[in-house]
Specification:
Layout: E1 2-7, H1 11-22, E2 27-33, H2 36-46, E3 50-53, H3 62-70, E4 80-84, H4 91-97, E5 102-105, H5 110-121, E6 126-127, H6 129-138, H7 159-169, H8 174-181, H9 185-198, H10 204-213
Parallel strand pairs: 1-2, 1-3, 3-4, 4-5, 5-6
Helix pairs in contact: 2-3, 3-4, 7-9, 7-10, 8-9
Domain HTH luxR-type: 150-215
Modified residues (4-aspartylphosphate): 54
Keywords: DNA-binding, Phosphoprotein, Transcription, Transcription regulation
C-alpha cells in the first residue's frame, strides 16, 4: 500500500482527492491537512509514502512546507507531489527547488494524478508536459537554444541516451519512456541516472533546461 497525506486548504478538493485515492486498491489516505503548518506536523507524525501538496495554503505555503519535508537540508526527505492550479509563475521552479518530486496541475485527469502518486512513490521524478513547457518558457533567454551548432556537452551521451534525454525533456515519466522505447522501467532508471551523471546535472529539471538550451528539443 502507498500511504498518502493530502494537503489542501479547500475542503471540497481534499474530499475529492480522498475519495478518488480511496477507490484505488494500492492507495491509502492516512491523513489530511488544511494549512502548511498542519501539513508539516502531520507528515512528520505519519511519515506517509507520498505527500500530495497544494501551494497556496494559509499559515505556511506549500513551497516552504515542501522545503521542510524534502529540502536539501532534510536528513530523511519525504516524497512530495505538488498538485496545484498555478503553472505559469515561479511556483513551479521554486517547488522543485524546494525538493518536490513532481508537479501536476489540478486539471489533470484522475488517472494521471493516481499514476503520478505511484510514480513518485517509486522514487521517480515527475513533471507534467504542460508544466515542463511553462518551466522552460518562464526562463526565456536562459533556455534559448544555442545558435552555435551542436553542443559538445552532448557528445558524452550514446545514441540511446540521447533518445532518453529527449523524452525526459518532453516531460515523459520513466514509465512513459519505457513504453515509448519498449524497454523496462529499470532500464530507463539506469539511463536517466547515467545521463544526469555524465552531464553533471542535479535533477530532471536541469536536464529539461539543458535540452532546450542546446536545441535538442524546441
Amino acid at each position: 500500500m502507498i500511504r498518502v497525506l493530502v494537503c489542501d486548504d479547500q475542503a471540497l478538493i481534499r474530499a475529492g482527492f480522498v475519495t478518488v485515492f480511496g477507490l484505488q486498491p494500492d492507495l491509502e489516505v492516512v491523513g489530511e491537512a488544511s494549512d502548511g503548518e498542519a501539513a508539516v506536523r502531520a507528515a512528520l507524525r505519519l511519515r506517509p509514502d507520498v505527500v500530495v501538496m497544494d501551494i497556496r495554503m494559509p499559515l505556511l505555503d506549500g513551497i516552504e512546507a515542501t522545503r521542510r519535508l524534502a529540502g536539501p537540508d532534510v536528513t530523511d526527505p519525504m516524497k512530495v507531489l505538488v498538485v496545484t492550479t498555478f503553472n505559469l509563475d515561479g511556483y513551479v521552479y521554486e517547488a522543485l527547488r524546494a525538493g518536490a518530486s513532481g508537479f501536476l496541475l489540478k486539471d489533470a485527469r484522475p488517472a494521471e494524478l493516481i499514476d503520478g502518486i505511484r510514480t513518485v512513490s517509486r522514487g521517480e521524478a515527475l513533471l507534467a508536459p504542460a508544466v515542463t513547457r511553462a518551466l522552460v518558457g518562464r526562463f526565456g533567454d536562459r533556455v534559448r537554444p544555442s545558435t552555435a551548432g551542436r553542443d559538445e556537452r552532448l557528445d558524452v551521451l550514446t545514441a540511446r541516451e540521447i533518445e532518453v534525454f529527449r523524452l525526459i525533456a518532453e516531460g515523459l515519466s520513466n514509465a512513459e519512456i519505457a513504453g515509448a522505447l519498449v524497454i523496462s522501467q529499470e532500464t530507463v532508471k539506469t539511463y536517466v541516472s547515467r545521463i544526469l551523471t555524465k552531464l553533471a546535472l542535479r535533477d530532471r529539471v536541469q536536464a529539461v533546461i539543458l535540452a532546450h538550451r542546446t536545441g535538442l528539443v524546441v
